[in-house]
Design a protein that fits this description.
Layout: E1 3-10, H1 14-25, E2 31-33, E3 47-48, E4 58-59, H2 60-74, E5 77-79, E6 83-87, E7 93-97, E8 102-110, E9 114-116, H3 122-126, E10 132-133, H4 136-139, E11 147-151, H5 155-165, E12 170-174, H6 184-195, E13 199-202, E14 205-213, E15 216-224, E16 229-232, E17 236-239, E18 243-245, E19 256-257, E20 260-261, E21 279-281, H7 293-314, H8 316-319
Parallel strand pairs: 1-2, 1-8, 2-5, 8-21, 10-17, 11-12, 11-17, 12-13
Antiparallel strand pairs: 3-4, 6-7, 7-8, 9-18, 14-15, 15-16, 19-20
Helix pairs in contact: 1-2, 1-7, 5-6
Amino acid sequence: MPRHARVVILGSGPAGYTAAIYAARANLRPLVIAGDVPGGQLTTTTDVENWPGDLPAVQGGELMARMAHHAEAMGAEIVQDVITSADLSRRPFVLAGAMGTKYLADTLIICTGATARSIGLPSEALFRGRGVSGCATCDGFFYRDQDCSVIGGGNTAVEEALFLAGMARRVHLIHRRDRLRAEPALLDRLQARVEAGQIVLHMNRTLEEVLGDEGGVTGVRLRIVGGGAETLKVTGCFVAIGHDPNTGLFTGQLEAEAGYLVTGRADPAYRMMTSVAGVFAAGDVQDAVYRQAVTSAGAGCMAALDARRFLEERLPDAAMGSSMVPA
């Protein structure tokens, strides 16, 4: 028998678990489908020092385990499954799980997050979380008064380099072409940092290998376009070549911009609703700017409150539970 819930939440990161907590407190008995990475990106993070109330730092995996426990304690159910297809053309919405289960949802909250693009080097994967990072805002604090590198040439890379320049001793910005692709205003700010000696540009170079030992990253080896190589001594390597929101399931069904789901446009009364009524999105899957655990959690809260109000105003029978089919 299909699983039918008033609120189905896709994804189990900060946005998904926070949405689950708020929906459960509203007695909506939400069903969380954890996805292929239960806990999301934070499970691959070691010290999290910017989560309010947790000082000294909390481990990313521990934080997500606590969120999962909190959601379940409130009454949410967490299912270990991966959705392989979604039909949003009818209500209840129909989701097919990899385990063969069909899920029916009166409302759907999409919290599938985004994936940082990687270069694909084995050494990059080996040192991820131990000096290799995709988020300077998250991890830059650990590199105060140290030398670090940023890989990329667009807005994201320049923004990361500028952020790090405020705390690191020196930032090496590495780009494979002879000119950066960032916006002029960012390039002006970058030039000022370069002239001050805080940022060093390495153009026409690609990352060949991340160097390190048991303690983490110790340097990067670069391949110079046209021949030759050079090695830089750094303790941090930030790969800033963009993020890909995990929205493939909804291509052609939901409005998106640069891959990120658009919210709040179809009906301004519901800030987190997508272009389909009753479908909401929160976190990195719709946020191309901040991409922080705390902002994702806040968006998850907003999405759950919107879903509750939608059920009360548009689907009052479902809000009272008459549409619930036993598991």
